[in-house]
Amino acid sequence: MSDAWDDRLRQNRAEKDEFFAEHPQSPIPPDERDDFDGLAYFDPDPDYRVEATVTRHDEPAPVEMDTTDGRTVRYLHVVTFAFELDGESYDLAGYRQAGDDPATFFVPFRDKTSGQQTYHRGRYMELEADEELTDGDAVTLDFNLAYAPFCAYSDTFSCPLPPETNWLETTVEAGERTR
């Protein structure tokens, strides 16, 4: 993997740490920001950048996702990403809410690090496609960009929980982790 990818990833992480430390909309409670010294991450690992094959759902099924505050929020299951990780095949559903940008996909997931090395309720990825995805398209899922939702840092946020269909029976040691 190129040094440019690694450099971009590290720059992205530094910018996020700065946002969390200083921005008024940071999920870190204001009285804890002075002690905040950055998020914890797994080391960048190109093995967690995987090529996925797209299956598009022209009539997306609505999915009611539970949230951390006990409500539900409706998403549409618009695509499925099929990929291999450590020689095993997996699928992850990509979601969107009605009216959202059609080129952006929300991919919440849990894996065997959840509750051990990562936020116990799961992590998120977002995929932004350059053009409309069609069946058979190949896209890159980069688990190095996986992040904990804001509710991992403050109870004032309500976050959708990954549905069981997006619970991976493998370990994904990439992206944000707990201390």
TrEMBL record:
InterPro entries: DUF1684. Gene3D superfamilies: 6.10.250.1680. Residues 13-41 are annotated as: Disordered. Signal peptide: none annotated. Pfam families: DUF1684. This is DUF1684 domain-containing protein. It comes from Haloarcula pellucida.
